[in-house]
Structure formats: structure tokens, C-alpha cells
């Protein structure tokens, strides 16, 4: 026979077990939920604080450009004076006395031309002159009044004068048998040989010699428009050639074209270089280094300060902890740095890498950009080629370094 009192006791134990398990799980759930709720509350509070707090922007001051800048421009070198020597009479080369490389003085004999045809013409002209003189003297000797008219006497005198002028002209041409140097210099071309036929023409290839004066050379430079206001006669320069990497040749601006080339917007400028030791040769490739004084003030900024996009160049300036978009007029591009011609005066705090979300008048906080220093010295760079077309021709105004 079963005891009826055991059934209620079993039911109580079951429900007590269920209740204990529920309490245990409930406690564990609360232990895990409460910290999570606290973290979410803290994160929400931080997000709300961050949303209302002023953003911190990295800024860098704009720097006024120095009073001078240095540029290097390619140049073509020519002799101070150069000319081709042509024959001024027809004939054959009888002899020549100067070859290429020969230094000659003004008036020195270069070649002698034989002129047989001219000599014959002079003989004929002198014979005609003698006949005209005799005829004229005969007319003058007539003393009988009315024997000859005044017109006949004048015609005789005119014929005599014409034949005299013809003789003088041919005699002057005969002097051109001697080909002489027009000025002191060096013979750089000789295009004649003994027996060569020469004539009075200046056609291509008809020149007998070429003479150049190399004690002073001329370097012709095309100066870009933005540097033209600083170019003036007397400005000193340095002329550099790759064959003498350790030497600078002193030059001086002698003149300029006075007008810009409409195709390139450059000013043709002539620089004279003393060449007494004859180290420089005409035709050498060279570069002219100018140290130019700025005629208008400008400002140098970091290239990262430009606002990306947009049709108008502008930067973000922080004034009294507020954002202001400032339009600018950029000048030369130095890569990491940029020249500003108008829009900034220098000293303004410019936002580096400005975000598109910045709004005009927004309150912000600033921190100066840090200049990173290399942890270890960089390996030495290879020496640049002197005439490398990719080599920068203008040194950055603020880095204080010069082009080698």
C-alpha cells in the first residue's frame, strides 16, 4: 500500500529545484547584463560629448617667401663676334694662309685670289681712258672761235670722267684680291683650296672662312615671364658647364630683347661671359644661374593645405578658433610646397589635409604639425645629371638648399 504523503513532498522538491535553478540563471543573467548596460551608457555619453566637442585640426603657419630666389635656365653659347668672309671679286684661289684654329689679327691676310679676267678689264679700261683723255685734250686745244660747240666740249669731258670712274672701280675691285680678317679672332671654318673658283655671292656654301672672337662669349637664355621684372642689364650671374663641375664662370646680363616671345612667353636675354683663358668654346651647352630679387611679396605654404576639389583654389584658415575658407592665387609649384601670390600675407594658420565636412565659422581646436625627423640617415643620393630634363630648375625658397 502506497503512502499518500510522499507525493506532495516530491512535488515540493521539484518546484524548489526549479526555483533554485531559475534564481541561479537569473543572477547570472543580471551579472552579465548590468556591466554591458553600464558600458553602453558610458559609450553613449562619450559619443554625445565627442559630437558636441570642437574637432582638433592639424595646422601649419604660412611663411613669407624670402626676398630673393635662385633659378637655373639652359643657355646657348655663341662667340662675342662671328662672321663669314666672302669673296668680293671673281677669280681663283691662288693661295690661302690661315687654317681652322689659327688666331688672326685684324687686317691679316687670309687668302689671295687670282683675277685674270679683272686684270684684262682693267687693261681695256685704261686704254679707253687714255683715248678719252686724248680726245678731250684735243677739243680743249682748239682756239678758233666757233670751231666746236660748248656741247661737244662737255660731252668729251663727260666721256673722260666716265672712263676714269670705270678705271677707279676696277682698280678698287682688284684690291679685293687680298682676303683679310675683318677683326681679330680665331678661324673656325675654311672652305677653300688652291684653285677653287670663287665669285661675289653670299649663297650658302660660298663663304671662304668663318672668324669668331672668343675672348668673350654670349649666353642666350629664355627667361620665363614671371621672372622678367627682375631681369636688368648689369645683373651678375653664374654660368655653369658640365665639363667644369667645380667651376662657376662669372657672367653679366648685357641686354634683352625687350619683348616676350608670344609662343613661349619668355624673354630672350643675353649674358656675356669673360673667356680670357679660352676654357669655354662657342656652341657649348650651359646653364645660367640667376639670383633674382623679388619684385612682389609672396607666401609659401604646404601643398597639403589646399582644399581638394573645386574650381577655385582655396585653403582653410583658422582665425580665433573658427574655420574660414580663403581663396588664393597660386604661383610656382615646388612639389611639397606651393607659392601663393595673392590671398595670404604670411603667419596664417592653415589646416593640413582639410576634411570636406568642415563648415565656414565652425569652432575648432588646433595643434601644430610636427616635423618628422628620419630615424636613421638616408643613403646618399646619386649625383644628378647636369642636363637631366627632369631635374628641378628652381630651388625651394624655404629649404635653403641650392641646386648643385
TrEMBL record:
Keyword Transmembrane helix: yes
Keywords: Membrane, Transmembrane, Transmembrane helix
Every CusB-like beta-barrel domain range: 221-291
All residue ranges annotated as the CzcB-like barrel-sandwich hybrid domain in the record: 83-201
UniProt family annotation: Belongs to the membrane fusion protein (MFP) (TC 8.A.1) family.
Domain of life: Bacteria
Pfam families assigned to the protein according to its UniProt record, in alphabetical order: Beta-barrel_RND_2 (PF25954), BSH_CzcB (PF25973), RND-MFP_C (PF25967)
Residues annotated as signal peptide: none
PANTHER family on file: MULTIDRUG RESISTANCE PROTEIN MDTA (PTHR30469), RAGD PROTEIN (PTHR30469:SF37)
SUPFAM superfamilies in the record: HlyD-like secretion proteins
InterPro entries: Beta-barrel_RND_2, BSH_CzcB-like, MdtA-like_C, RND_pump_MFP
One Gene Ontology term of the molecular function aspect: efflux transmembrane transporter activity
GO cellular component: efflux pump complex
Organism: Hymenobacter jejuensis
Region (Disordered): 363-404
Membrane-spanning ranges: 14-34
Protein name per its UniProtKB record: Efflux RND transporter periplasmic adaptor subunit
Domain Multidrug resistance protein MdtA-like C-terminal permuted SH3, chain residue ranges per copy: 309-353
Biased composition regions of type Basic and acidic residues, renumbered to the chain: 363-375
Amino acid at each position: 500500500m502506497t503512502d499518500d504523503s510522499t507525493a506532495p513532498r516530491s512535488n515540493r522538491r521539484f518546484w524548489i529545484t526549479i526555483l533554485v535553478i531559475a534564481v541561479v540563471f537569473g543572477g547570472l543573467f543580471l551579472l552579465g547584463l548590468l556591466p554591458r548596460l553600464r558600458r553602453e551608457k558610458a559609450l553613449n555619453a562619450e559619443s554625445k560629448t565627442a559630437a558636441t566637442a570642437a574637432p582638433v585640426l592639424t595646422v601649419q603657419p604660412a611663411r613669407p617667401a624670402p626676398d630673393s630666389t635662385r633659378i637655373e635656365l639652359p643657355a646657348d653659347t655663341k662667340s662675342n663676334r662671328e662672321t663669314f668672309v666672302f669673296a668680293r671679286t671673281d677669280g681663283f684661289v691662288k693661295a690661302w694662309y690661315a687654317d681652322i684654329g689659327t688666331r688672326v689679327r685684324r687686317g691679316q691676310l687670309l687668302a689671295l685670289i687670282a683675277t685674270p679676267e679683272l686684270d684684262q678689264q682693267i687693261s681695256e679700261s685704261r686704254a679707253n681712258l687714255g683715248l678719252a683723255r686724248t680726245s678731250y685734250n684735243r677739243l680743249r686745244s682748239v682756239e678758233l672761235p666757233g670751231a666746236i660747240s660748248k656741247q661737244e666740249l662737255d660731252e668729251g669731258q663727260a666721256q673722260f670722267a666716265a672712263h676714269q670712274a670705270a678705271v677707279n672701280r676696277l682698280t678698287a675691285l682688284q684690291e679685293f684680291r687680298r682676303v683679310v680678317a675683318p677683326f681679330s679672332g680665331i678661324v673656325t671654318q675654311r672652305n677653300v683650296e688652291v684653285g677653287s673658283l670663287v665669285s661675289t655671292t653670299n649663297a650658302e656654301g660660298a663663304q671662304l672662312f668663318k672668324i669668331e672672337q672668343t675672348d668673350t662669349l654670349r649666353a642666350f637664355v629664355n627667361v620665363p615671364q614671371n621672372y622678367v621684372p627682375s631681369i636688368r642689364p648689369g645683373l651678375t650671374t653664374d654660368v655653369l658647364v658640365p665639363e667644369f663641375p667645380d667651376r662657376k664662370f662669372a657672367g653679366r646680363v648685357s641686354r634683352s630683347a625687350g619683348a616676350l616671345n608670344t609662343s613661349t612667353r619668355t624673354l630672350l636675354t643675353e649674358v656675356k661671359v669673360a673667356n680670357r683663358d679660352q676654357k669655354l668654346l662657342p656652341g657649348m651647352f650651359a646653364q645660367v644661374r640667376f639670383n633674382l630679387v623679388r619684385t612682389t611679396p609672396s607666401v609659401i605654404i604646404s601643398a597639403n593645405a589646399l582644399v581638394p576639389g573645386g574650381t577655385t583654389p582655396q585653403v582653410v584658415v583658422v582665425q580665433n578658433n573658427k574655420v574660414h575658407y580663403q581663396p588664393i592665387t597660386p604661383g610656382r609649384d615646388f612639389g611639397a610646397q606651393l607659392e601663393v601670390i595673392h590671398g595670404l600675407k604670411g603667419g596664417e594658420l592653415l589646416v593640413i589635409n582639410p576634411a570636406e565636412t568642415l563648415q565656414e565659422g565652425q569652432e575648432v581646436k588646433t595643434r601644430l604639425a610636427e616635423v618628422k625627423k628620419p630615424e636613421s640617415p638616408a643613403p646618399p643620393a646619386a649625383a644628378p645629371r647636369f642636363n637631366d630634363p627632369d631635374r628641378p630648375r628652381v630651388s625651394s625658397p624655404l629649404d635653403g638648399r641650392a641646386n648643385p
